[in-house]
């Protein structure tokens, strides 16, 4: 006789993942997409790119039926297209004078997010605390928690204020420069201090440099410039932001041969390989003779928008600027003055002033922004706005933000 075994025990899900909610910028952006009247200044999807002069060639050669079949019918090399890796090595040679072994020190990844995850996997163990500079991209913390690591926040001012204390003991530190959300760019002295302390602690430095071409107030410097052999530095980069192609999902990791060998194993086990057809498009963009000039034009556009914002979003309008953006594609003003002008009911809606202002701007001014608290406790009085939108949206957003101060306060100021 067959006996049926019944049990009331339900299968379990990973409690860490279950506890992580949808991150704020994604939720806010989704609300904006559902209402065309809302100006979406919340998510980093640049409207520029890919370069218009390449579109015909991409359509003819890279998106042809032949190119599709060549890509779709075969697995690509697990390390990525060798020609693309050589183009990336050339990127570092011509821009920074760095000599990277294209086949042993570069791994093509499924966007910069996979590159970050692989770097974390390779240089830390479950349960260890990885240092993340603050302000920081919100997904660093979530990636670390999802991978079973702990997070140790360290304010970026640790490096910029001449601090002499030691880095917390940790296998790795994640640095974003140019920085999302503030636009800060590390200078040479800060990199030297960081490398010196990392050597003393035996730590890796994971430098997320995806906004590398968007530096206008200070020259961008990859961490590897201060560690030519890559003994303790790893670079994370991608095409998503610089070429305005976040859906292409082509990124890369640069490290010494041992590090890339370890990352390649993890890549094989988890991803196997990236889309070969999209690698062709990435190769075309990086190899384009007009590439550097086109990217410089995008950087100049972002710099000009920063200038306009600083001129128009002034303290009397509710915006103050503790630091001028030096790079990246975001604005990160302190909005405490605007918060103080809200009604008591509006001020009580959320725990931080930045959240209350973001809520007010969304519902009263129809502008979607991101509250600063998600980038760290020190950012609670800030909001983040993107600079990569179209010109009409940017102009209208500035006009609305200039009028964001409640009418009764504007009347008093007049």
From TrEMBL:
<keyword id="KW-0663">Pyridoxal phosphate</keyword>
<dbReference type="InterPro" id="IPR004839">
    <property type="entry name" value="Aminotransferase_I/II_large"/>
</dbReference>
<dbReference type="Pfam" id="PF00155">
    <property type="entry name" value="Aminotran_1_2"/>
</dbReference>
<dbReference type="GO" id="GO:0008483">
    <property type="term" value="F:transaminase activity"/>
</dbReference>
<dbReference type="InterPro" id="IPR015424">
    <property type="entry name" value="PyrdxlP-dep_Trfase"/>
</dbReference>
<keyword id="KW-0808">Transferase</keyword>
<protein>
    <submittedName>
        <fullName>Pyridoxal phosphate-dependent aminotransferase</fullName>
    </submittedName>
</protein>
<keyword id="KW-0032">Aminotransferase</keyword>
<feature type="domain" description="Aminotransferase class I/classII large">
    <location>
        <begin position="38"/>
        <end position="401"/>
    </location>
</feature>
<comment type="similarity">
    <text>Belongs to the class-I pyridoxal-phosphate-dependent aminotransferase family.</text>
</comment>
<dbReference type="InterPro" id="IPR050596">
    <property type="entry name" value="AspAT/PAT-like"/>
</dbReference>
<dbReference type="InterPro" id="IPR015421">
    <property type="entry name" value="PyrdxlP-dep_Trfase_major"/>
</dbReference>
């Amino acid at each position: 006789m067959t006996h049926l075994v019944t049990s009331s025990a339900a299968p379990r899900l990973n409690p860490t993942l279950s506890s992580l909610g949808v991150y704020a910028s994604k939720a806010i952006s989704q609300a904006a997409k559902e209402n065309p009247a809302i100006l979406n200044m919340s998510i980093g999807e640049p409207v520029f790119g890919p370069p218009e002069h390449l579109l015909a060639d991409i359509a003819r050669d890279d998106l042809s039926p032949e190119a599709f079949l060549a890509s779709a019918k075969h697995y690509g090399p697990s390390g990525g297209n060798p020609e693309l890796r050589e183009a990336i090595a050339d990127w570092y040679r011509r821009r920074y004078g760095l000599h990277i072994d294209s086949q042993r020190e570069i791994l093509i990844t499924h966007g910069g997010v996979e590159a970050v995850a692989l770097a974390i996997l390779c240089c830390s163990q479950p349960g260890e605390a990885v240092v993340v500079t603050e302000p920081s991209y919100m997904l660093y913390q979530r990636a670390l928690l999802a991978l079973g690591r702990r997070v140790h926040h360290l304010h970026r001012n640790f490096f910029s204020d001449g601090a002499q204390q030691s880095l917390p003991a940790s296998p790795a530190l994640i640095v974003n420069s140019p920085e999302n959300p503030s636009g800060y760019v590390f200078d040479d002295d800060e990199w030297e201090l960081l490398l010196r302390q990392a050597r003393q602690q035996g730590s890796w430095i994971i430098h997320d440099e995806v906004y590398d071409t968007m530096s206008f107030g200070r020259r961008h410097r990859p961490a590897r410039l201060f560690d030519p052999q890559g003994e303790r530095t790893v670079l994370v980069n991608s095409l998503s932001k610089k070429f305005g192609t976040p859906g292409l999902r082509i990124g890369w990791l640069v490290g010494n041969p041992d590090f890339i060998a370890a990352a390649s194993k993890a890549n094989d086990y988890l991803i196997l390989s990236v889309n070969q057809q999209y690698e062709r498009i990435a190769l075309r963009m990086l190899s384009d003779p007009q590439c550097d000039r086109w990217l410089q034009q995008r950087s100049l556009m972002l710099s000009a928008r920063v200038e306009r914002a600083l001129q128009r979003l002034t303290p009397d309008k509710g915006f103050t600027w503790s630091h001028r953006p030096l790079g990246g594609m975001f604005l990160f003003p302190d909005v405490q003055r605007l918060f103080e002008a809200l009604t008591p009911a509006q001020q009580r809606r959320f725990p931080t002033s930045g959240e209350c202002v973001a809520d007010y701007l969304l519902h009263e001014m129809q502008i979607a922004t991101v509250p600063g608290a998600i980038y760290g406790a020190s950012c609670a009085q800030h909001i983040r706005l993107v600079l990569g939108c179209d010109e009409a949206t940017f102009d209208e957003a500035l006009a609305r933000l200039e009028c964001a101060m409640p009418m009764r306060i504007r009347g008093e100021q007049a």
